[in-house]
Records
---
Amino acid sequence: MDTNLPQTSQPRIVVIGCGFAGLRLAKDLAKLPVQVVVIDRNNYHNFQPLLYQVATGALEADSIAYPIRKIFAGQHNFFFRMADVERVDPARNVLETNIGEIHYDHLVLATGSLTNFFGLDSIEQNAMQIKSVPNALNLRSYLFQNFEKAILTEDPAQRQALMNVVVVGGGPTGVEICGSLAEMRKDVLPKDYPELDLKQMEIYLIEAGAEVLGPMSKESQVQAKHYLEEMGIHLRLNTHAQRYENGRIYYSDTEFIRTQNLIWAAGVNGAALDGLPENAVARNKRVGVDTQNRVLGLRNVYAIGDVANMVTDEMPRGYPMLAPVAIQQAEQLAANLGRLLQGEALQPFKYTNKGSMAIVGRNRAVVDLPGDLHFGGFLGWLTWLFVHLMTLVGFRNKAVTLISWAISYFSSDKALRLIIRPFKRHDFAERSVVEAAEKKAATSAYIPPVSAPEAPVVGG
Ligand SMILES: Cc1cc2nc3c(=O)[nH]c(=O)nc-3n(C[C@H](O)[C@H](O)[C@H](O)COP(=O)(O)OP(=O)(O)OC[C@H]3O[C@@H](n4cnc5c(N)ncnc54)[C@H](O)[C@@H]3O)c2cc1C
């Protein structure tokens, strides 16, 4: 029991997840007379907003991830266990993990989110996602592997499918990866693949809404759309990706785009855990909390960040799944846990909106600030770079990222294009999805799309 954690007279606060929320909370609990136990399935904190740069060869993975034990070196009340939490048992105050059971006095869920494929199985089994460092590295390798294959094929349609990229989801992640891919097409790929005609490589962005960057201001939406079009991205707005079959992404019964590079950036669900009261978990798998981040129906369990669904008059659909919300909820909860230990009343969460931004490419970014302030272009781009650099964890990561960006800016190059993953399409899908697909393949006439015969072109 308790995976060799020391037993003390101090209350134990267990935090599941060391993303933006868990990291801030555990840091802010340093001075309280409590034992802080952080559990994460990875031994590093991952800076998700820059994952797309790892996926497109602009940054190395180590510059956006930081070892958790190093972050907390010197914090005496801190303990870390690398583990996957499988279930919460609130009746016993115990977590079931793959390394054993862990007891808690107070529990904080900071598990973030998971990609939501909206039940589109064929897309889930074949699309690449950008939620983790392995996802981003796989995506980079896979793109370059397909270019190596494009050189070898003599079939022009197959060559184009190997070079085309389709990104689904026009939020910041989709927009940012499209912009970065367009820069690769212009600056990097022609140098590496002079045998290929890069004019044949098309980049498509499919978005169900009428605009890209849905939650941002109208000005930012229009400006980002203009930037994307200027960079040669084909926008398919008001369009729903429906299924992926035989190397084609269908957006109606008959219309499709041929691609072997499908990137899904269209939505996320909360990463709720089994064992929580059923009525506390919403359909989008976010966990309902009160204004003090306490999970509905539980006395000593809290949720913060992406996984927490706090519905207020100000935010009737819950707070957005953004890093500043996660950080501010963590700060508030740390203060509230301090109050709890003192026997004082807990205070409700209040969000300070510091604005939002998205980058499309070199000298092209859009920024919205509170008070309906908007700007873009070079100033927006500089602001984006500065804010992201300052938010990275650790001096080394900041320095390496700054140097990498400076080199890329002046050389118009993205240096990191090693293929470091073995070719395997299912590397991109979650293990459960792979297992389901394999089971289906074993019991039915399911044909994996990679080897499926090509049908005649009727669209796209
Ligand atoms: C590609 C991408 C780009 C983004 N860009 C921006 C941006 O520009 N600006 C912005 O504000 N936000 C952005 N976001 C959103 C932002 O990253 C999230 O809002 C933020 O990470 C939420 O923090 P969190 O701590 O709640 O969750 P996370 O940061 O996701 O951390 C969750 C942690 O929990 C761990 N975990 C989960 N389940 C378990 C389990 N069962 N057992 C053990 N460990 C577990 C995970 O390993 C992870 O370390 C982006 C997200 C993505 C994916």
---
Amino acid sequence: MKITLLGTGDTTGTPLVGCTCPICTEGAASGRERLRTSLLVEHEGFTLLIDTSPDLRRQLLQTGSPHIDAVIWTHGHYDHFAGFNDFYRVQRYPPGYGAPVVVEYMQNQFHFIRFTAHPQEPYVPFTLGGLTITLGEVNHPPAPTFGLLIEDGETRVGYTADTNPDIPQRTKDLLDGCDLFFADALFPNGIVHPKHMNYSEAVSLAGELHAKDFRLVHLSHKIGWDAPHIGYDGDTFVL
Ligand SMILES: [Zn+2]
Ligand SMILES: [Zn+2]
Ligand SMILES: [Zn+2]
């Protein structure tokens, strides 16, 4: 299994438009950037996209224009779905997977698009291209949001999606002991947000869940460019 981080930013991306903070200023000067968070998963010729960010067109171009065989949406927030129409005249719209409430939301949002919807019950594993996927509810009020476990028979990769640290125990059990774990870390230590983890909360969760390796994603412009444990756009992991 190969994972590519197509983006590691939050809903605004970094640099934040119009922001003159040191991190955005340095990013604009050096060309460093965090596109909106999305993951590409490749396994035995099958290519899976986790969330369709508003930056999807550029993310596809930057990764060699892969054909996407399926999409999984974690939740119905703009930064996680708005790019779906970027498949228009590029390829047939991929089939869309996710929890029933999320898939139904996407069918309403994209009522003008013909795509096949495949609602999946949380905590019930399903297979996609030789991968076993299991959705697990997280805590990102008020949007119903689902992290996921991806297994290829040898390795286990987990992703929290957007969430505060108060994750249901059933999902913690699902995501325990991953070989590679991605966690939402919006803000630096000291900033507590009702919908997201901050840096230390995300690092603590990775430890609590016995992740063998982890990267923090969905980073805001307040997280420094060289903070330990953060993921970078374009990072690839071959497992
Ligand atoms: Zn988000
Ligand atoms: Zn800034
Ligand atoms: Zn969100």
